[in-house]
Protein: BspA family leucine-rich repeat surface protein
Amino acid sequence: MLAPSISAVSPPPVPDNVPRTPTKPTKPTKPLAAYNGLPEDVIYVIISFVCPKGLTTLDNASRVSKGFRMHAKRKLNIYRKLLKPRSNADLKWRVKQWLKDSRAAENRFGHISDWDTSEITTMRELFCAAEEARGVGLKAAMFDEDISRWNTSKVTCMLNMFQFAASFKGDLSKWDVSNVTDFRNCFYEALSFDSDLSSWNVKNCKRFDGMFSRVPLTSELSSWDMSSAISLRMMFAGSTFNRDIGTWDVSNVTQMASMFAGAEYFDRDLSGWDVSNVQNMSCMFCNASSFNGDVSSWNTISVRDMEDMFSGCVKFNSDISKWQVRGVLSMEGMFCNCKSFRCDLSKWDVSLVQGMERLFRGLVPPGYSGLNIRNAYSVKRMFHGADNFDRSVVKSWGMSERALEGMFTGPERKLKERAAKLLDGVLTEGLHE
Structure:
């Protein structure tokens, strides 16, 4: 443990036989064993507060009476107890006091950077700047103290820990997060955060939902062990992240909805991902305007929802003709405004798909005439804005005119409003689940 700061400790009473003039301590010159095993931090307490002029080394500090050294040791033990929160609730209460008045909290508990969190098991919403969290939203948004030495080895939950903490940019590279199972929204909209997290051990974590949403993260994460992950929903939504994560083991993941929604810079090779257990890919790359990764070999047999999956993905043109989509129920807006998409999907089995609204809005892909859309309950605006569409193929679909109503047209104003709200909607949905 580092020596306590002078501002955080009240000096013990000075024995009558010791002059009261404190002097600045100097670097120790002898090993501690020479002083009957007196801990270094206790000696620093002595030197900092009660040593007379000239007594500035460990050698001279040994002249201080044994009685006083014992007294200083007791004082230090009391100080250590003050630094250690008694429970998870106690830590949360202390943080609240710190956010309200850091000077008063430091005088009472010591500096926040020295707190002993070795027994803490949850840090849920600890620095969350959401106003409803604890009524200290604005001050939490300004928090940026050094907590790099906190012991997080027993922590299992970091849900919403730094959510909306817009000023926080602390170094968390050495934190032990090996027991954390829930990182949901941990850094959501922490607009200044960009710590190196490359060495974090996340092998036990299951939930990463919204973890880096709207975060300017540049850290390498390629070495993360994601084998326990089950949900990556919104993980990088709205983020500037663009690092290689192609080697991640996502074989147990079931949720990837909005994972890269609005991640305008992301364009990495994800061809090696095993997505065979993923059930929800809705909005996964929505408005990821740079993405054109090779996802042709993905096994999508378990996916049920592909709504808006590539909506606004203006550069995307991967060959996904061999995807198995026979279990998909919704493809609404899946390729909406995918201006570069030219893949022939004529071999897709879409017999179970019910929602096809806006599916190809703004484009006419090859092989569209071969799609079996008879079970679709809604095809409104399916080809809205697709000027080159051959309407003669409609007859081959065997659908009534009423069922096909609005396939080629739609209220433009509402479409624009939906497009404007789509990104914000997928980013804010379910933040406090």
Notes: The chain is about 20% helix and 0% strand. The chain has a mean pLDDT of 80. Residues 325 and 348 are 7 Å apart (CA to CA).
